[in-house]
What does this fold into?
Amino acid sequence: MRTGQFAAQARIAAYVVFLLGTGGEQWTQTVPERVVPTLLGGVRAMLPYAVYPAWETPRLRDRLADWPAAQGAYAAAVLRHHADPASASADDIRDALLTARAARAAWHTAVARAEHEPVRHRGLSRVTADDAEDALTQMGRVAMLLEAHLPDPAAPPVAPAAHLADALRKATLQEAKAVQEHRVPQWDAVRAALTHPAWADTSDTVVRLARLLPTALTAFSEALNGTPAKRR
It folds into this structure.
């Protein structure tokens, strides 16, 4: 069954013919009787997919679009904690992280299903999907490192982190539609939020990690644009 549906059905049909042959029936009679119903059953089973397609391959972009939006929400929740340590809640970060993990799991499930579908490529190529996944994984790592450096409630707020969080949340939500529409996402608003002068007074570690977020998003856009990872 793991080899393929056609191979499995051919062997099952041959086995049925063999069993009927042991009962005294002639193969010239049993072979047509077995082949014709098998073909009719296959056509009947595939007809609903032709009328109402349910393949995962053409919908891979829709599945992929949910992941950067969830990753952006997680990174934004962490940045808001840096922006206002006194009133920030760890529950928001945890909920956003769980949502991002669920989006990643849904993407992996969709890719696994698409690999076994007899559908011509109409969504994402394997190379593009792998490169996009690497970029979003890198974005998740950066967000987790920012979470590892969360300040104490008594620490001074990082004002520009709030602007970056808002820009990141809005951009990832808006550009998710661009992914669905086969357009290359743009992250100018995220980069602009990192030019705020107040970043000069922020911890060097936080600044360097924050600047890696648009780098990962840019790699994601380049992957969708077809730029090979080695060239990037």
